[in-house]
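User: We ran a pulldown and think these components assemble together. Before we commit to crystallization trials, I'd like a predicted model of the whole complex to look at. Sequences follow.
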Amino acid sequence: MQIKRLAAVFAFCLAGLLVPAWGADEAQGAARCVECHDDLPDMSRSAHGVAADKRTPDCISCHGASESHAKKVAGKKQGKPDRLFVGESISPASERSAACLTCHKSTPKIALWAGSQHPTEDVACNTCHKIHSNTDPVRSKATQPEVCYACHKEQRVQTNRPSRHPIQEAKVVCSDCHNPHGSAGPKLVKKDSVNDTCYVCHAEKRGPFVHPHQPVTENCANCHNPHGSTVPGMLLARPPLLCQQCHTPHVAGGVGAVGGQPGVFPPAAPGQVAPAVTGMSSGKNVVNIWQGRSCSNCHTQVHGSNNPSATNPTPQFLYR
Amino acid sequence: MTRLVRHFDARPTVLVLALLAAYGPTRAQSVEAKPPESAENKAPAGAETKVADKAGGDTAPASGAGVVSEGSVNVGVTGISGSSADRAQFGQYNGLRNVGNAAGILGIDYYRRDDEAGSSLLFNASNLLLETRQLELLWKTQGNWKLSADYNEQVHYDPYSVNTGTVGFGSTTPQVMVLPGGPGTGSDVDLKVNRTSVGLGLWKSITPALNLEVSLKSEDRSGTRAFGNGFTCPSSVAPGCQGATSTNTGSAVLMLAEPIDSNTTQIDARLSYVGEKLNLSAGYYGSFYKNSNSILSPNVPGSLNNPVGTLLPLNTGLQALLNNPLALPPDNQAQFLDLTGNYALTDTTHLKFKLSYSQATQDQSFNASGLTGAPTGVANLGGQVNTTMGMIGITARPIPKLSLLADYRYEDKSDQTPLALYNVQGSAPNTLTSTNMQLPLTTQRARLEAAYQFSKDYRGTLDATYSSINRGVFTPTSAVEGVSALRQTTDESGVRAELRRTMSESLSGALSIASTRRSGSDWLKPNSGTGVTVVTDPGTAFGPAAIFMPTLADAQRNKVKLTVNWQASEELALQFLAEGGKDKFSSPTAYQQGLQNAGMDVFSIDFDYTLSDKWRINGYLTQSSQTQQQSRFAGYNVSFKDTNTAAALGFTGKPDAKLEVGGNLAYMNDSNAYPQTLDATAPPESTALLAATGGLPNVAFRQATLTLFGKYEIDKQSALRVNVAYQRSYVNDWMWGYNGTPFAYSDGTTLYQQRNQSVGLVGVSYLYRF
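Assistant: Here's a predicted model for the assembly, 1090 residues in total across the polymer chains.
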């Protein structure tokens, strides 16, 4: 196994020798690295270990020529590499990212990196990516969320709530909705807007509809928390509370109560003239408003309806 | 050497792999091309996603290690305890909800690499015996071309199951049948949605400076989800329908599952140019949604249960209303073009930009869909929304210690959907007709930021943001009800200050505070007929019951965040997070109905401890809360609070060269409280009801999961893996029932989820490498 690692490291050092653009000194410099650093993990399966690709970097490409580190002078303290990605003398995030961007700046999904949220928060490429390895946890659906949770603790809690996307099951991961490398959309969503990002998987909500619901077309996050919630449908708040943040409520259901509590169904509780719900109660009673699908028990087309019927009751109240 | 363990390096693979192991056969378990040399290589071998680097260029033959070919097959069986009801939470997405007490494990992995040619082939198949099976192929010559293909199945089981008497539940023509034996005596049905997708991708380097990428994905979706209809008579929008009497029911609510049978096809293409200073790409994205079901046509009987469960004939008009067809999502299309790039003005000054145009359309024929009653001469909606977006940003470092950033984004969504008289309300002579409404949207966002490196260790950042939303002039021929006030534009500006200690020693962190303010244009009051009226004096124009939406109201947000990373010793790394924020909404009247304020706070500590070269433990504790203060006129004042505690403790170890073990214990406790007091104008019946009930019960969710795994290398070619997991969940939510009283629809249909759930899992698999 040790031999395999050495072979991989030696292979891309050899690649440096074969590329005309690289001078003999640099190549020699890269080969010098493995004289001491012979214990690196196997990365023969990673893109950075493909010797046949002329562009494959060697040690110096990322860490710099590091002459004071490579040439240990007797009696003097060994210098640090020009660019360090870990450790006490770690290089600034911008310098570390600059090493990667030398090659990867042309990658379309990194086009909007400069000035985006991560670099401005000192997150460098190697903050999330593991280079000296055959497996990069952030590029695997099974392990990516844990890398993101290292900073995004609130989302770690939310994605474990009962109403959620299948993140734990590695079917949907952070990079399915977000481009951490930069985006024109808010919160680094992959598309130009939150809604366009959601419509990638939920195109049935896109419409346009005959009867739209304005907050839906403006921003799905007006009502939903896509990271997870205790309310079914990943809603920000439980209906009718959520709906009543915008809409004037029906007369009944003035105070929240649920069936099974005293005084809701017959018999009346002490102090009540009649229970809250009787056989003569309207359908807009406290139980229908606070339980089941709540407002959606009747206003079922909450995302919009394409029903064109101009017959009373027309569907503009999203009944059908 | 003291090793600074950054927060990301807290070996989270222990936790996630343990969680995946709990769910039985997964990619992490089934995909291993070779034995991991260390805990670092725990992630699935060869688990490259479709998102891979796309740098262009020609390959050149080079000497290398020749051809590498390796693969593995993973077979085994997982025993699972608990009924389907016990697995409501556990089996939401992992395909183990209804597999009985055993499930097979089968996964295949193959990797071939030609070091001379620089080409590789990776094939991975996992969960082949479950509803979550997945196959991926990636074949490439690095820097020259890449071909990818994938097949993916996904399933979602609603944690709530349905008990119903409806015949054809989940079809487009459900026949509603009242349960003669009452709620709970019907047939049990799961609400389930399957997604099956096939994808193809190709990347080709045309020249060293020009690359082309094309991908195609087609996803079929089928199943059922919670849906329904309901109506209450009498109603101003349904003249003639009569309300409840002692002998007739005047309202009904019904659970009708939405029948899902649709396809979404997506096409992505991008041509990229790589220059010395300029990188530019032109992209196309098309999304085409097609629904095989256009309407849901229920068949509702003439008698249903009244609100207290007594079977009575429906009063005049109600049955016809309930039998109206419901429109299902129509076919729609959206296509996007964009030009994206960046330009290095100098070594320290960079420009980035994006320009995009999209068109979303929907022109499904009403008649062909079975939807009747459209306005005369209107065959389809003709929906069309055109969106133009432009974004530009510049970053510069005029002096080494100073970084500057400015960006601006503008998006204009133009709703070109034709107007027609779709809306009729009331009866003659008071009939109100109105058109549908157009919903244009113009947004702007700008940011300025300056960061100064005070010293080697300290950096300060100051930024200012501005954003605005213009919702366009309200369609004057349209009408709105159920809403107190609208607003055309809102503007928000904010500032943020941050002090960061850069990560160069054993202690690093950042403290930031942010504040934003939102205001907007004059409020708009809906007219009794069509259109809205601008209100210049909202204090008198709106009454005490008026609600000013949290998306439109004047608002103030303040937020503070502190993060600290501490390498306490060679072995121990700690991370702290404390974050809090509050939103306060203002009302232009003396009263404040609706959402008044909302807050959040999070406290979290993570640790990672290296016991030895072979053993490691990590874990976290997070405490968070969310609050919302909300009120309604003549009703409640609710001080909602959600409190969440989440913790986990995990370990990995290698007792000897052949044996690897790991485990994780995770716990979450989430409690939602809805304490209420009464608004001063609440009627006596509300006062009496609150006194009788004591208020809304809490909603609680608790879950504990223990997972253990052991992997033994039998020899170079084979290994044996054992997974053990146990999960307990507690769900107490009054949404579908409380205190033994289910929420029953008018036909007796109920939904339920078992309150206490427990699932045990033991999986044994054999890995053979070739």
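Confidence is low (pLDDT under 50) at residues 1-27 of chain A. That may be worth checking against your pulldown data before setting up trials.

User: Thanks, that helps.
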